[in-house]
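[step 3/7] inverse_fold.run input=structure_tokens len=225
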């Protein structure tokens, strides 16, 4: 039987392999968007290797901004950049069609804005994130605080069990509901439906704008979806 330590090392190696494969996809003179999370952190750690290929970098969250600045990158506001060339980010779940659940780290709004602002989106995950059907991971929904209960009632009517994420205030001063036990049979439709509920800022379904590739890291290398 593998030890806990060996499992952790294998998981970290998988994330690093996916991160390195994404580094290799950064073109010259790249206006780069950077996501949030532990897999993306491995990507950020490798960015100094390709500093000369990056013309500007835009961040999806305050946490990522801090890491980029620590490495000496100047982080540009999205509003001062045009369309980004490439956005790289992780995910909490991916199905075989590259439809994602994101927002486990609470940065879903910045992430969705950067996906929508980028020509290309490359997603990096380890094997544990692959699922047949989205929804085992509770679906994060960012809500305006005054609308929290109203949105929660709508989510219950859709068949979910929303749970308030205690102590979480997003970069934009909002709250998160994590919705358990949703049957996500049509992710595109559900993304639109939840987005339209008044008070919802962002739903963590990324099905309408999918990554061009999901790089799945394994302990020994990568494969792609
Ligand atoms: C943050 C996200 C992350 O991409 C997602 O939670 C995956 O994180 P990790 O790589 O740590 O598993 O959506 O809002």
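[step 3/7] decode complete -> sequence:
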């Amino acid at each position: 039987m593998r030890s806990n330590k060996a499992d952790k090392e294998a998981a970290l190696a998988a994330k690093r392999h996916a991160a390195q494969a994404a580094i290799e996809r950064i073109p010259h003179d790249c206006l780069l968007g950077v996501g949030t999370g532990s897999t993306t952190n491995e990507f950020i750690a490798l960015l100094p290797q390709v500093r000369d290929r990056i013309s500007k970098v835009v961040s999806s969250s305050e946490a990522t901004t801090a890491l980029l600045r620590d490495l000496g990158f100047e982080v540009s506001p999205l509003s001062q950049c045009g369309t980004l060339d490439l956005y790289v980010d992780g995910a909490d779940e991916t199905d075989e069609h590259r439809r994602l659940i994101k927002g486990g780290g609470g940065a879903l709004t910045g992430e969705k804005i950067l996906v929508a602002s980028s020509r290309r989106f490359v997603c990096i995950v380890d094997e544990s994130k692959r699922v047949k059907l989205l929804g085992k991971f509770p679906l994060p929904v960012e809500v305006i605080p005054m609308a929290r209960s109203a949105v929660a009632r709508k989510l219950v009517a859709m068949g979910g069990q929303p749970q308030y994420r205690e102590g979480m205030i997003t970069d934009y001063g909002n709250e998160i509901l994590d919705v358990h036990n949703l049957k996500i049979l049509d992710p595109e439709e559900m993304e639109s439906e939840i987005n339209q509920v008044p008070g919802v800022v962002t739903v963590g379904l990324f099905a309408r704008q999918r990554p061009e590739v999901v790089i799945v890291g394994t302990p020994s290398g990568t494969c792609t979806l």
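[step 4/7] annotate
The CA atoms of residues 93 and 128 lie 8 Å apart.
The first strand starts at residue 30 and ends at 34.
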